[in-house]
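ok new one. same drill as before - structure tokens go in, u give me an amino acid for every spot. 309 of them this time. try not to just spam alanines like last time pls lmao
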């Protein structure tokens, strides 16, 4: 009897995932009919309407209050609303990702995308060596590996698949065609990234994800656990580490920035200090978020406080 109940529960869960996935795919299909600007602007307005009505909005408000205690309620509400709009834009931009990246090095500033740090892209491409590029959930972070591939610089990207298996499969296939090698985040992902670095290649990592078993650090003055994977890989392979981010500009335009190599802190033995390096990554992402707070995904439970509200 217990086995039958379990099968029914699993079947119902699978049906729910399938229905949600079909609704999402249908929405994206409708967006694809529209011109890119119209679709992106529509998704922005739609999420500004839907977002504040969801349970996640409460989490977003708490996160913003903890991160920006000096701001007024009106200021934080404005950031929250804009953040929902950027979430809508991110979804819509998925449909047009191939067309959005139109950077032409011979005509900089004329397309939707401008790139800062082209010399870094070209140096990493023309002088192969192991390296790590890290970013955060700012603006359309998906454009960064697309840009790398456009420059002939293919990076193995660590990503966290969506919980919905139907959506996860669709997203994985979509990303793989446009971004190169992908490594789903799971127990063996660190070995896959290590093999890539061992071969002299590059990897890309999002460093602002929730990670319950991470090292103790601070983010916006609040205690948070951070995945030590990047710091451990950098220590093991003594590879170069580069920050990179995307910034949304007015008029549905984007600026991609790859910054100069950063030096990770070391301990008395000369080894990279994993805890201090993890804190440095948090500090970098925090600086990015402070400069464009509305472009970060505040509905993430980065501080693991969802169970308290």
């Amino acid at each position: 009897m217990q086995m039958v109940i379990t099968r029914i529960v699993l079947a119902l869960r699978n049906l729910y995932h399938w229905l949600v996935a079909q609704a999402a795919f249908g929405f994206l299909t409708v967006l694809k009919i529209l011109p890119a600007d119209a679709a992106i602007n529509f998704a922005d307005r739609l999420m500004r309407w839907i977002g504040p009505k969801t349970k996640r909005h409460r989490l977003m408000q708490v996160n913003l209050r903890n991160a920006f205690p000096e701001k007024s309620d009106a200021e934080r509400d404005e950031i929250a609303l804009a953040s929902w709009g950027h979430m809508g834009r991110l979804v819509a931009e998925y449909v047009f990702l191939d067309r959005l990246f139109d950077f032409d090095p011979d005509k900089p500033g004329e397309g939707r995308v401008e790139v800062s740090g082209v010399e870094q892209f070209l140096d990493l491409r023309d002088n192969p060596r192991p390296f790590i590029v890290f970013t955060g959930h700012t603006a359309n972070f998906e454009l960064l590996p697309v840009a790398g591939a456009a420059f002939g610089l293919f990076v193995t990207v660590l990503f966290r698949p969506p919980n919905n298996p139907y959506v996860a499969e669709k997203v994985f296939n979509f990303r793989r065609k446009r971004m190169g090698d992908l490594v789903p985040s799971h127990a063996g992902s660190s070995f896959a990234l290590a093999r890539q670095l061992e071969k002299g290649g590059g990897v890309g990592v999002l460093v602002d994800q929730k990670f319950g078993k991470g090292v103790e650090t601070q983010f916006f003055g609040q205690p948070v656990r951070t995945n030590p994977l990047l710091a451990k890989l950098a220590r093991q392979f003594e590879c170069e580490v580069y920050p990179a981010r995307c910034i949304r500009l007015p008029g549905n335009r984007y600026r991609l920035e790859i910054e100069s190599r950063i030096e990770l802190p070391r301990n008395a033995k000369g080894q990279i200090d994993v805890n201090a390096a993890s804190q440095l990554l948090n500090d970098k992402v925090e600086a990015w978020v402070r400069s464009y707070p509305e472009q970060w995904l505040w509905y993430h439970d980065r501080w693991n406080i969802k169970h308290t509200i």
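Residues 35 and 96 are 9 Å apart (CA to CA). and btw The mean pLDDT is 84.
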